[in-house]
Amino acid sequence: MKLRYLSIILFFLSAFMVPLMAQTRGSALTYLTLDAAPQDVGLSGASGALGGRTDGMLINPSLLSLPYYSPQAVPMSVYFSSRPFFFDEFRNNILFLRFPGYGFDMGAYAQIVSTDDLQILDDLGDRQGTAPVSFFSGGLGFSYRFPGKERFFVLGTNLKGWQSRLGDFSAAGFAADLSGMFYFRMPRPNFMRYVTDMPDSALAVVVHNLGTPAKFFQESEPAPLSYSVSHYVGLYAFKMNQFDFFHGFHHYVQLGGMRYSAGLEYKLFSIIAFRAGVSYNLQHYSTGGVTAFSGGVGLRDKRNENFGYSLDYAMAQSPLDGASHMFGAGFTYYLPKPEEVRKVNPGLDLEIIAEAQRVVRDVKQKKGRVPASLAELYQEMKERGYPEPRLTAGRIVYLPEVEQVVYVKYSDNDEKVYLITLRDGSALLGNIVHSDDNKVELLSSAGLVQIPTREIAKIVSSEFRQIDDVAKLRTQYLVLEFRKLEGRLPDSLNELRDYAAKKGWIIPKAIASELTYNPATGEVQLQPLSGGNTTPVEQPKGVEDTNSSAPGTPEVPIDPTPVIDPLGSDPAPAEKPAKEKTDSILPGN
Q: How far is Cα 137 from Cα 54, in angstroms, rounded to an integer?
């Protein structure tokens, strides 16, 4: 709950901030700095700096510093952002890593910065003129992702070197960074339901320049130790377009300066990115206020499955030092993932199924219909940035007639859809993935729900190949939802259809049978058009029948016929146990 409130507060804070890019100010000895976005931590310490991103992954330095003598104003800091490198590729535990399956990643970068108007001041601060500056840097980055699903931590380090020229003088140096990033999925406020389908967020901390000497004018000077704290949030994502916001604080420990930077990035068709930003000095002996505005464009190519590259350009305009330019290039190479490394992971499979179910609901909200086939569902997932679904211990079965994604384990012959009626009269529809004496785990469109067996009044099932039986269960489920919301049973199927249309629900149609409804009992049945078309209901695996003589079995009635009193007319127990919270799985609720 605290994380929910924190995320919403950060979102509102972000909505009133402006984009990012920066310059720093120093004392008699200051530094030319190039900053990668500290909030996009990963591969080399802070992902997404200009020239360091390929496919959203970090391959750039988080801080490169060149000490030089007595300029007071530094031309700029390039401060660009993209989604942290694992956001689009880490799903499915394919891990988007240089060393697939082991949690490690590495990358490389190269970039050039130049300006013609760097101010040169003497020791007393008097202006002596301007001088051109050029700066080339390159390096390697490494990161490790600790296991996790909705929340996980990434630890990274970046090794970097540079060669620069200030007027007639040149310098070279080496530096290293240490970074950490905590990723979590931000709860989506109701007003954002139709705006974004990927409410991701991340917090990052980066420590820059850990004991790194730099040689300049035949002298050795330490690069300035600093740290940054920042926040990222995805504001909008639709198909292959997305709009991101990021902001953060950067504190220079030795120089005593602090600045706040914020930025926006819009990605079009996942190929080209437009960026803008601004930076503010918050604490320094010198003047504060806006230090630089910036804008840029990036191009990414990843047509090859194993290789990708990116090209970037940016320009920053400083009130004191004029324009600075940056050119960057990066590349990635993805080692093929050995099949033996891909271990069986049922928990990962359930996460993939839940993502597929969310896409079904999102398509229904935006297009007014669900995907017509599994191939169309896969295409919709691809357009939203999801990798190809690759289950480790089962397969996906999609039932567009009932808007349901079903998980079938390779080790099971249990290919059924279940309607579970609880003793309080509510119901859930989905796929049982596990059951024992104490609980039943049901995978529904609301996610994985654990239901204590003491709360279950009745379980009815149908093989998903029998579309008419599944349609009957779906309609029966909607009858129960109607009763829960309205406090009464619908008078007829027509009333239920009208109510469903207002709620955005779908009432499936039987193919070879006719749905009939008894308003007195609330029972839905199939009337065969030619012969029987119902499937006997079997008890789900791990949930015993009440006739079983085995000691300690839960009292969960499993109907021996297709549907017998699914509304749960079973007499209420003498002492009603505490109710497990079960959210409605219907779209729009």
A: 17
Dist CA 262 CA 88 (whole Å): 22
Q: Dig out the tokens for 261 from the structure.
A: 């930077």
Residue 254's nearest CA partner among 293, 210, 297 is 210
The end-to-end CA distance of the chain, in Å, is: 20
Are 362 and 197 contacting, i.e. CB atoms less than 8 angstroms apart? Answer: yes
Nearest to 178 by CA among 290, 43, 51, 272: 43
pTM confidence score: 0.42
Give the angle 551-553-556 at the CA atoms, nearest 5°.
150
Instruction: Grade residue 366 by pLDDT with cuts at 50, 70 and 90.
Output: confident
Q: Is 207 strand, coil or helix?
A: strand
Percentage, residues of the chain above pLDDT 70 = 33
Q: Are strands 169-185 and 200-208 parallel, antiparallel or unpaired?
A: antiparallel
Alpha helices in 487-536 (DSSP H): 493-503
Which is more confidently placed, 406 or 88? 406
Cα-flanking dihedrals φ and ψ of residue 334, to 5°? -105, 115
Which residue in 15, 63, 55 sits closest to 38, CA to CA? 63
Return the C-alpha torsion angle 51, 56, 57, 61, nearest 10: 30
Q: 3-state secondary structure string, 134-201?
A: EEEEEEEEEEEECCCCCEEEEEEEEEEEEEEEECCEEEEEEEEEEEEEEEEECCCCHHHCCCECCCEE
Give the pLDDT of residue 542: 43
| Average pLDDT estimate for 274-286 | 66
CA–CA gap between residue 15 and residue 588 (Å, rounded): 26
Count of other CB atoms within 10 angstroms of residue 33: 30
pLDDT band (50, 70, 90) for residue 79: very low
How many other CB atoms are there within 10 angstroms of residue 427's CB atom?
A: 27
Mind listing the pLDDT tens digit for each residue in 518-535? 888 888 887 766 544 444
Q: At 583, is the secondary structure helix, strand, or coil?
A: coil
**4 CB neighbour count, 10 Å cutoff:** 11
Rounded CA separation 254/222 (Å): 10
Q: Which residues contact 512 (CB under 8 A, 6 or more apart)?
A: 468, 528, 529, 530, 533
The answer, yes or no, to whether residue 192 has pLDDT greater than 70, is no
What residues contact residue 310 under an 8 Å CB cut-off, 6+ apart?
A: 51, 53, 54, 55, 298, 299, 300, 301, 328, 329, 330, 331
pLDDT range class, residue 108, cuts 50, 70, 90: low
pLDDT at 565: 35
